[in-house]
Amino acid sequence: MVGDAWLRHTTPDKYTRQTLELSHDTLLQIADDLLKSPPSGIDTASLDSVLTRSRDRVAQMARLVEAKDAPSFSSQLDSLRADEKIVKQFSDSIESRQ
Amino acid sequence: MSKALQIALGIITSIGGFLEIGSVVTAAQAGAAFGYQLLWAILLGVLCLIFLVEMSGRLAAVSKHTIVDAMRERFGFPFFSIVLLVMVLVAFLVLVAELGGIGLSLQILTGIGFPWWAIPVSFIVWALMWRGTFSLIENGASLLGLFTISFAVAAVKLHPDWGSTAHGLLPTFPGDQKAKYGFIAVSILGASISPYLMYFYSSGAIEDEWDESYIPINRVIASFGMSFGGFLSMAVLVAAALALRPKGIDVDKYEQAALLMTTALPRWGFYLFGVAMLFACLGAALEISLAIAYFFAQGLGWNWSENLTPSRDARFSLVYTIIIFLAAIPLVLGVDPIKVTLMGMALTAATLPLAIVPFLFLMNDPIYLGEHRNGWISNSVVTIVILISFVLAVISIPLQIMGS
């Protein structure tokens, strides 16, 4: 959401960058927690891979805000959305097993 | 000042002073996580608050006692000291949250982290208390708090489904996340029914020298001021339900709440949020600091008045000086104000019986209120809501802590 807002010029650069950095740290924390005690029946390697990729994208987006590179930012945002869908599939599959 | 003007000013300051970090964060969390489903909690809290604020003003106008004065006189010092300890501890947590709210607002507006703002913000709050008068704190800060009306504009601009909104005013239970639902409901009730507001209001009535002729004015201010304030709280919930929930955003961090208005008010929404929260938290921080100082001074029989110079009520001034700077310490150390806010609001709800039950005894005592003592409607409404808050708090706080 903050990415969309930045592309629409409705949030300042500093706030956007800080929020993305915060998201990066949160993703790191979530990945650590998940991989310490992974849910049963989940392909841990794939989950780890998609979370690491998302984290890297968010870090890259924070740097793109700094560089004010909106086109590259937009393409990273699209890729992040695709990763989000994969994470959602993991989440749905865990929920359906419970 | 004419009575009509007093009423208008009273209502405006009640609206401007209603929202603070607790009510905004809890309402935003509720909307983001459960849509309109928790609107009933705001309605219940505001209903109870209307009665409690009206009672606080009536007690002061009729008996010329603040709540604290009367509580100590009626129940004796040993019982009063327990209430003092618990209420001051909870109010202190809320003060930390409000100072943190000012710091976080400045953080999102400037990019400088909130711990850096803790000392300057505390100093400004202290300086306003030291140099200001009661009317400056009551009216000045609350008038600036009128920026919070922008939440209502944002909610309306997002075109809520009014049928579903009305449905949210009736309590329903969620399919899952019951502990979270209960915890947020408790936090909303705690944010709405803040005992510090009653202490502040009754002390203000004494500062403004109210007498029995103010009873109708008090009733109008309490009813309309708190109702309109409650609408603003509901507007935050509705805006969060429409702007954040569809994107799956939970409000765990203040930065997420800041996005509340960027969908509805694209150009200025972000800055309006920052400024509105800055003033709302500033007003609340001033009121809580004053309420804590009133609590000590009135309970221990010291000189007290925000209209006196500090040299004439030195111990009163010393209390708020110490409290404000103590509250800055956790923030300097980087303690997350949002976590403090949620815990503070939930604990407020859990300790409500201790604050409210003795107050109800006072409000039914003919020695203090004579013919103006409570009727059965006021007693029933307040008792039922306090009971609900307490039961919800006892069940959901441990569950939420275990769940976390």
Whole-number count of domains of chain B: 1
Overall pLDDT metric of chain B: 89
What is the terminal-to-terminal distance of chain A?
30 Å
- Reported CATH architecture of chain B: Up-down Bundle
Unreliable residue runs of chain A: none
Instruction: Provide the low-confidence segments of chain B as ranges.
Output: none
Helix proportion of residues of chain A, in percent?
A: over 70%
Strand content of chain A: under 5%
Morphology of chain A = elongated
CATH class of chain B: Mainly Alpha
**Oligomeric assembly:** heterodimer
User: What is the global morphology of chain B?
Assistant: globular
Overall average pLDDT of chain A:
83
Briefly, what is this?
The complex is a heterodimer of chains A (98) and B (404). Chain A is mostly helical and 98 residues long.
Helix/strand layout:
The complex is a heterodimer of chains A (about 100) and B (about 400).
Chain A: H1 2-7, H2 13-36, H3 44-67, H4 70-97
Helix pairs in contact in A: 2-3, 3-4
Chain B: H1 3-16, H2 21-34, H3 39-63, H4 67-75, H5 77-110, H6 114-131, H7 134-144, H8 149-157, H9 162-167, H10 178-192, H11 195-207, H12 215-243, H13 254-257, H14 269-300, H15 314-332, H16 337-350, H17 352-363, H18 366-369, H19 376-403
Helix pairs in contact in B: 1-7, 1-12, 2-10, 2-12, 2-16, 3-10, 3-11, 3-12, 3-19, 4-5, 4-14, 5-6, 5-14, 5-15, 5-16, 6-14, 6-15, 7-14, 8-12, 8-14, 10-16, 10-19, 11-14, 14-15, 16-19, 17-19
Structural description of this entry:
- The complex is a heterodimer of chains A (98) and B (404).
- Chain A is built from four helices and no strands.
- In chain A, helix 2 (13-36) packs antiparallel against helix 3 (44-67) and helix 3 packs antiparallel against helix 4.
- Chain A has one domain.
- With 98 residues, chain A is mostly helical.
- Chain A is elongated.
- Chain B is mostly helical and 404 residues long.
- Chain B has one domain (3-403): Amino acid/polyamine transporter I (Up-down Bundle), CATH 1.20.1740.10.
- Chain B is 77% helix and 0% strand.
- Chain B has helices spanning 3-16, 21-34, 39-63, 67-75, 77-110, 114-131, 134-144, 149-157, 162-167, 178-192, 195-207, 215-243, 254-257, 269-300, 314-332, 337-350, 352-363, 366-369, 376-403.
- In chain B, helix 3 packs parallel to helix 10 (178-192).
- The longest helix of chain B has 34 residues, at 77-110.
- The radius of gyration of chain B is 20 Å and the shape is globular.
- The relative contact order of chain B is 0.22.
- The model of chain B has no long low-confidence stretch (mean pLDDT 89).
- At the A-B interface, helix 2 of A face helix 5 of B.
